[in-house]
Amino acid sequence: MLSFLAKSVAPGILSAGKALEKVGRDFAGKTAASKFPASFGVILDDVTKEEIVEYHKKLGKSVHGTFQAPSANVDSSAKIKDSSSVWYGAAVSGNVSVGEFSSLQDKSITHESAQVGSYVVVGPGAEVGAKALLKDRILIGAGAKIGNGAIVESDAIVAPGAELSSGAVVKSNELWEGSPAKKARDLSKEEVKNIVETANFSVDMASKHHMESLKSVAALASQRQRFERSPQAFMEELSENPAFKSEVKRRGLIFNDSN
Question: How many other CB atoms sit within 10 Å of the CB of residue 14?
Fold first, then answer.
């Protein structure tokens, strides 16, 4: 089951570290190519305050404890509760509600008036239809499609690539897969527990990405330079930071492009 969960959500979580790097590349290429290299690995003596302010407008923002990636498109009427996150390239339409500790991952789409509960992970590229209801502790696999008005009850999984018909109902403790999606089997207690652990992992990653997004351009340049001077010393220093103790492989650092 752990491998199943990894295939469902890992493409978004494990690649998210490069997404902040891409923000830098986009800004460098379109706004200040002569001054900002892809990873800002230079002394920024000639960078103007206006350019730095403009760069920070593109960074992820935290609203009431949520993380919204810079390339996410979230309608102003959407209500997203504490510790939930909207990742890179994701779109959230009007009147959507999202509970606590949930994650709408890379390039996912959540349509008008959909309701997403707590501890829900909507995988990369998945689509949640208009007025669909996802209760609590749910995993929607990568690329899955939840039809308009469909209901997924608590403690359930929709497999990657599955297509749930409009109005369909997934009962608690069930795994659905296929196109059109049908019940494949019941979930074990361990599988239900793993859903919550996956949601918590996503919350942890969102917190780290938000921390990185708050750093100034100069701080990012300094961070990269320290790493390039002595990778081992930098990683030892990083590993002592409580916020990063659970993950010291540099995923989530803006300058990292090796993983």
Answer: 15
